[in-house]
Design goal:
This protein is an alpha+beta fold. The chain contains 18 helices and 52 strands.
Length: about 900
């Protein structure tokens, strides 16, 4: 999850009461995200060996849902935080959680703040990204419903409803009879009543039969199916009035089955003047174009409620897991940045499931041109953006045209009525990399990143249809409260928007699914649509070549031949396109099976050849690969995998081959990359150095199995020492006595490493731990205690030197033999005096010794004695200590 971005003008008004009941949806990671994506692509792509091998919901859960152990871990992690997850969803991808705001805050280490938005609505939001501990946290994909700052909105547009108001607004085309400028009489499975025809004439828009004629659905009606046996799901977040649908059906003489499915308590109007208008548009559009299809209207809450999870997500989830409708149409959305990555990722997993089950999803691309993000007043924010879910890779995004004549072929341009009046959505996703099906159609992008960055990104829309309210659709709608808005004075009215174009495309796919040409549902439509565009573009699509979707001062995209981000591939030539989509099973690309591969990081691989052939001989074949180890690549024309892997690991690789017609074959396999072997030698078993003495260990050496450069490192080195990262030489001057364990590591850049440990002792210096001097006349009484250094060998020999003015007599040797105390014991020693130096040798090494000299053994000149007695001078003594290893250390001490 994330901390949501606050809308402009939002003002904090205090913390959300801890007792407030909130519902969230906790979504779970699929078992293998890469494998699921690969299957969703393969099952939807003409030519794939898995094309149309659809799964049931239970098969999906068993194959791609998290394991039972992972589910238990996720549930346990939530319960450990005081939460009570609800039942697991049928696809094993989510739990609902309902509890108090205070408990949610504690469980996810966040808080909740209330905000007053510009519209006056009071919203709430989490104050930080949700966090969760425990082993199950890695299984959890996201937490949806922690805020309600931004909600999906319907993308339909009410139009001006009188010729007078249009004329006053300067609409020259309005009332011109443009819709009648067709080269063929309208033909459809339905015929409108007089009220609908009069409405269309008054507002200069189209009836269902005219839309069917424009997009050449007639041939599908000739097949006499009219959508029979196919169920279309309509995603709605508001209720509608059933009598509106009855009136429309009575007008057209249809009896389509319309069933309401309530999700999590259903939808509410929330004081929306146009409540139900979106539902009615979607339902009536499908009834008019596919009158024999069954329609299931899924109505869920817009946002989270107090006792269930996220309504928008749960509504999609129920549609997908019911798996009754093979065609899904949604005219609700919000721009990617306002939707957020957590919700988008969870939706993507659902839409991958839908693809694996053979469901086609069509979504409105938005009505604010290239901007699409809106503020609380539903006014566009002046920056480029695209809508979710239209930008999702497994969803077909539907843009908008303005159709001035139905033809066929129809006369269309990109819909753009200018700021405040609407334009077809389109642009570049900031969330999703470009899918393979779209790669050969890509429009040049700049300064845009998506996902983890560095990708060419998904482009929207995929297709278009009539969306201009000024050339729109005649529908029947009555307000919930019976009071008509000023721009909708009668029950029959005209409407447009990409939310009108979307169910038009859904209806076409429903007709295709029901036709005898299709042996099963088309499923995720984009791979087939783009494949059709490669081979039969002029026969299957109406190319939109004029207009743009610049909006609100933001430069958009201009239509041109073929694909563009203002109109996508264009509008459909329905019968021909349906035939192409249904016949796509006949062609195929066959790819050689690949076995598991293994290699060593840092060593160039022996090239691996991927071979593919097109059953109908279409060339060239273009190769691509996903999930390759870093450092490897595939030749797009040769299919040869080559390079030098740089990082150890186990990689799930999917190789794709695409022929000229867009037929795709895929093969998946595992590639294991192991680290190079590094051999480290010359590490001592132990090392001893002395404080203050320069040290150097130059024996380290290492070899690498791939010949890579070795970098040396060390931990635990005594203070004052360091290791040369290139040569491995340890050098420096130790500054402190210590006993430590040093770890030497030799590593390459490819994950190869070897480590060895050894003990390291830095011996301290001998020291005088106590001293005392008493002077009587010219005689001195001296006491010194000498100790061996910390971690150093014991003392074997001492040599005492006195400065000028001081004198050691030969008696000092005899005296020191008698008076020397050795660590509390007496020990045999030898002593001698020579040239003013006292030499003492211990027969056995000692850790400490006290030397005492008195009387005539140590004498001073009178001047020195006087100065010492009056403490105007100090006595500087030099002591040389030799330890048991023979190391001689000079120690200077001063005595008063």
């Amino acid at each position: 999850g994330r901390r949501p971005a606050l809308p402009a003008g939002a003002r904090a008004v205090g913390a959300l009461a801890g007792s407030t009941r909130l519902g969230v949806t906790v979504t779970l990671q699929p078992r293998d995200s890469q494998a699921l994506a690969a299957y969703a692509t393969a099952v939807s792509t003409p030519g794939s060996s898995e094309y149309h091998q659809y799964l049931s919901v239970s098969e999906f859960a068993q194959r791609f849902g998290p394991t039972a152990a992972q589910i238990d871990a996720a549930r346990t992690s939530l319960e450990a935080q005081g939460l009570t997850p609800g039942p697991l969803s049928r696809n094993h991808l989510s739990f609902q959680v309902s509890t108090s705001a205070s408990r949610l805050a504690a469980a996810f280490s966040t808080g909740f703040e209330r905000y007053r938005l510009r519209s006056g609505r009071i919203a709430y939001a989490n104050t930080s990204a949700p966090l969760l501990s425990g082993s199950g946290a890695a299984v959890i994909q996201g937490v949806i419903g922690l805020d309600n700052l931004s909600l999906p909105r319907p993308l339909g547009l009410a139009r001006r409803t009188t010729q007078a108001s249009a004329a006053q607004a300067g609409d020259a085309a309005f009332g011109s009879g443009a819709r009648l400028a067709s080269s063929a009489s309208s033909s459809s499975a339905v015929t409108p009543c007089t009220a609908a025809s009069d409405d269309a004439n008054d507002y200069d828009v189209y009836t269902a039969n005219e839309i069917a004629t424009a997009y050449e659905l007639t041939g599908l009606y000739d097949d006499d199916d009219e959508g029979s046996g196919v169920t279309v799901a309509l995603y709605e977040l508001e209720p509608y009035t059933a009598s509106d649908i009855s009136t429309y059906q009575s007008c057209y003489g249809t009896d389509a089955s319309v069933t309401d499915e309530t999700v999590d308590g259903g939808a509410s109007c929330d004081e929306d003047t146009y409540c139900g208008l979106e539902d009615v548009l979607d339902i009536e559009d499908v009834i008019g174009l596919a009158p024999a299809a069954s329609i299931r209207v899924y109505e869920g809450p817009n946002g989270a409620t107090d006792d269930v999870g996220s309504g928008p997500y749960e509504t999609y989830s129920q549609i997908v897991t019911d798996d009754i409708a093979k065609v899904i149409s949604t005219s609700w959305g919000e721009c990617e940045s306002q939707d957020g990555t957590s919700a988008a990722d969870a939706e993507n997993t659902l839409f991958e499931e839908a693809a694996s089950e053979g469901q086609s999803i069509f979504a409105a691309a938005g009505d604010n041109g290239t901007t699409d993000c809106t503020n609380e007043a539903d006014d566009p924010i002046a920056e480029r953006a695209v809508d979710d879910p239209a930008s999702q890779p497994y969803v077909t995004g539907v843009g908008g045209t303005s159709m001035s004549a139905i033809g066929p072929p129809p006369t269309e341009t990109v819909w753009n009525d200018g700021t405040g009046n609407g334009a077809g959505g389109g642009g570049v996703s900031t969330l999703w990399p470009m899918p393979a099906y779209q790669s050969s159609f890509a429009i040049s992008q700049s300064s845009i990143s998506c996902g983890s960055g560095g990708y060419v990104c998904r482009e929207v829309p995929d297709v278009s249809a009539d969306a201009d309210p000024d050339t729109g659709y005649a529908i029947y709608w009555t307000p919930q409260d019976g009071t008509h808005p000023k721009d909708w004075p009668t029950d029959w009215g005209a409407i447009g928007g990409t939310s009108a174009a979307t169910p038009t495309w859904a209806s076409l796919i429903a007709l295709a699914d029901a036709s005898s040409a299709c042996s099963t549902s088309i499923g995720a439509a984009n791979p087939g649509l783009y494949a059709a565009a490669r081979t039969d573009y002029s026969s299957d699509f109406n190319d939109i070549t004029s207009g743009n979707n610049s909006y609100d001062g933001v430069t958009g995209y201009t239509a041109g031949p073929g694909y563009d981000m203002a109109s996508g591939l264009g509008s459909p030539q329905g019968t021909a396109l349906a035939t192409t989509l249904c016949d796509s099973e006949s062609d195929a690309v066959e790819i050689s099976a690949l076995s598991s591969e293994s290699s060593t990081a840092g060593r160039a691989i022996t090239p691996v050849q991927v071979s593919a052939t097109s059953t109908d001989g279409k060339t060239p074949i273009v190769y691509s690969a996903a999930g390759l180890p870093a450092g490897l690549s595939i030749g797009s024309s040769s299919g040869e995998l080559s390079g030098t892997p740089t990082k150890p690991g186990s990689y799930s690789v999917t190789v794709q081959a695409v022929d000229q017609d867009g037929m795709i074959a895929a093969a998946s396999f595992t590639w294991t990359v192991t680290a190079p072997v590094v051999t480290l030698s010359g590490v001592p078993s132990s090392e001893t150095e002395r404080v203050g003495a320069p040290a150097r260990i130059a024996s380290l050496s290492a070899t690498d199995s791939v010949g890579a450069t070795i970098a040396y490192s060390a931990t635990g080195l005594p203070r004052g020492l360091s290791i040369n990262h290139s040569t491995g030489v340890i050098s420096g001057t130790p500054t402190k006595a210590t006993r430590t364990t040093v770890t030497i590591t030799a590593a390459d850049a490819y994950g190869g490493a070897a480590s060895r440990k050894f003990s390291f002792v830095v011996a301290g210096l001998p020291r005088v731990s106590s001293r005392a001097l008493h002077v009587a006349n010219t005689d001195g009484h001296l006491s010194l205690t000498v100790r061996s250094g910390q971690y150093a060998p014991e003392l074997k020999r001492l040599e005492l030197s006195v400065p000028a003015g001081a004198h050691l007599s030969s008696r000092a040797a005899r005296s020191s033999v008698r008076s020397l105390s050795l660590a509390g014991t007496r020990q045999a020693i030898t002593a001698s005096v020579s040239h003013g130096h006292l030499y003492v040798t211990f027969k056995s090494p000692v850790t400490a010794a006290r030397l005492q000299l008195s009387g005539a053994e140590l004498s001073f000149t009178r001047s020195l004695a006087t100065a010492l007695a009056h403490r105007t001078r100090t006595l500087k003594l030099t002591l040389s200590a030799t330890d048991a290893d023979g190391t001689r250390t000079r120690v200077t001490t001063t005595v008063r």
